[in-house]
Give the backbone structure.
Amino acid sequence: MTIAPLARDFSALIAAGRAEVAAEKYWADNVITINPDCGGEQANAVCGYADARSKLDGWLEQNAVHDVAVDGPFITGNHFALFIDMMITRRETGECRPFSEIAVYTVEGGKITKERYFYDQQA
């Protein structure tokens, strides 16, 4: 599969609130997922499908996601980017607020091998 159809399908799954399905379908076994470190300037990386999936599942357990809007994919070479806006409710507090991020994905061999998220570290 070339990057364009993968990026479009992945984007559609994210927009439909089906991040788990997108992960199962497109993450490589050795996927690396990187988030900003909310306590400083260093990134927080998780390596491997099992650990990345655990991180995703944990985030979804902590947050209910509503009203997802995706702009993109913006494709260049073996990378694509998405602008993702959503409303989330923190399950622990019941606080509902907007959450926005830019996600950049690297594709190799028809799978996402790296994803990097950029968002306000106060989020």
Summary: The two ends are 35 Å apart (CA to CA). The mean pLDDT is 92. Residues 49-62 form the longest helix (14 residues). The beta strands are 27-36, 43-47, 63-76, 79-90, 96-108, 111-118.
